[in-house]
Q: What sequence folds into this?
């Protein structure tokens, strides 16, 4: 207990003296208490008439936190364009070394501490929201998550729409109403006529939470297993984005009933081709015509613009020929290709191949979301990046974090997508 109290006294006196630019050696050696040091500093300030205002700058702890974070990231293989000052010098430090440096910054002599003692101090600081060492780990994990999530190769974001919800309640999507009833002339002293749509026919949107937990154990700390605070969070971040990608294509492939009680792709929705085929000029034209013929909720014609063709692996090369040939592919008379240089983009995903197995693999024509939507991914308050939080479970021998993300996938309209059942693909 006496040793602990002396460490607290030393740390507090060092912090006070550092704030006022005063050497703390005399106070530490003569056994002054924290209150006595405050009194002596106040007396000195009055005597010297030193202004009480202090210029706020980045403190040493903040600089060290930034440098240590970048050092850990570089050590894990990340490329840091402009590393913080001192990061290169810390790059060869182990996690234990950085924990020891954090204690030194807090005024605690860590030079003679064993690895177990360092772990003990580090674990206790893990439950302190202002402690430097866990903040360094948090920052490192967060940066690794952003890096990994941003570079995960998925395709859903190319053609789906994006939304935001502020809670986890089921929400009716009022944006579904593309158009409105006819605008009637209002005669002088006339009344405006109400125009309504049944709310039960509106699509619903709702968020769910997805996440995992990972731990840096005592053994990992002592063994300097940096992968547990860099590679593991990166793997989970990538898995989160891949999970969204797979869920989106599962919605397309399963073709379940949507908000109006009919399947997403249905003859009643005029968005399904009856006989499947591989991509061709004729097949794409048939899908375009169906999409162009869509009407809004009030039965009025709308202008839906095709923007993407979403295909499994195996159709990409045929589509390159279709959209890149000036003449109609296979034509004996060199007929002009109506799809040459079409603004329609090709999106390819192997997820559709996996879901189809040895059966026919469907493909889809998707509209520009500004003209008609189809699948929408909502995030809680617009946050698209996984979040981490410290797991304050004292029963865990180590440092534990929760990583989670809130999202919801909904069919908000069927007019913005058309399906071709496709054909079997042999690769």
A:
């Amino acid at each position: 207990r006496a040793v602990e109290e002396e460490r607290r006294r030393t740390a507090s006196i060092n912090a006070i003296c550092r704030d006022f630019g005063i050497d703390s050696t005399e106070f530490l050696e003569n056994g002054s208490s924290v209150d006595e040091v405050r009194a002596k500093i106040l007396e000195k300030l009055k005597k010297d008439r030193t202004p009480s205002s202090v210029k706020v700058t980045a403190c040493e702890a903040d600089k060290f936190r930034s440098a240590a974070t970048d050092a850990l990231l570089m050590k894990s293989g990340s490329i840091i364009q402009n590393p913080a000052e001192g990061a290169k010098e810390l790059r060869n430090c182990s996690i234990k070394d950085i924990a020891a440096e954090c204690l030194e910054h807090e005024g605690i002599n860590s030079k003679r501490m064993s690895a177990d003692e360092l772990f003990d101090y580090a674990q206790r600081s893990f439950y302190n929201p202002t402690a430097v060492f866990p903040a360094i780990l948090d920052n490192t994990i967060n940066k690794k998550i952003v890096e990994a999530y941003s570079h995960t190769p998925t395709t859903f974001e190319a053609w789906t729409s994006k939304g935001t919800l502020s809670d986890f309640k089921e929400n009716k999507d009022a944006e579904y109403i593309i158009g409105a009833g006819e605008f009637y002339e209002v005669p002088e002293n006339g009344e405006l006529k109400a125009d309504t749509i049944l709310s039960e026919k509106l699509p619903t949107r709702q968020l769910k939470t997805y996440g995992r937990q990972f731990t840096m154990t005592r053994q990992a700390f002592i063994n300097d297993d940096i992968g547990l605070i860099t590679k593991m969070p990166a793997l989970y971040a990538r898995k989160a984005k891949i999970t969204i990608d797979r869920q989106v294509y599962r919605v397309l492939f399963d073709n379940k009933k949507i908000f109006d009680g009919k399947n997403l792709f249905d003859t009643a929705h005029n968005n399904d081709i009856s006989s499947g085929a591989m991509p061709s000029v004729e097949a794409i034209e048939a899908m375009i015509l169906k999409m162009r013929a869509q009407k809004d909720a009030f039965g009025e014609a709308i202008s839906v613009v095709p923007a993407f063709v979403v295909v499994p692996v195996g159709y990409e090369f045929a589509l390159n020929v279709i959209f890149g040939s000036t003449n109609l592919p296979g034509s004996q008379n060199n007929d002009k290709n109506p799809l040459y240089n079409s603004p329609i983009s090709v999106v390819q995903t192997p997820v559709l191949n996996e879901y189809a197995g040895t059966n026919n693999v469907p493909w889809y024509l998707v509209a520009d979301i500004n003209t008609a939507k189809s699948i929408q991914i909502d995030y809680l308050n617009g946050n698209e990046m996984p979040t981490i939080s410290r797991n304050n479970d004292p029963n865990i021998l180590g440092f534990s974090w929760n990583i989670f993300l809130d999202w919801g996938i909904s069919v908000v309209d069927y007019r913005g997508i058309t399906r071709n059942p496709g054909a079997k693909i042999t690769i």
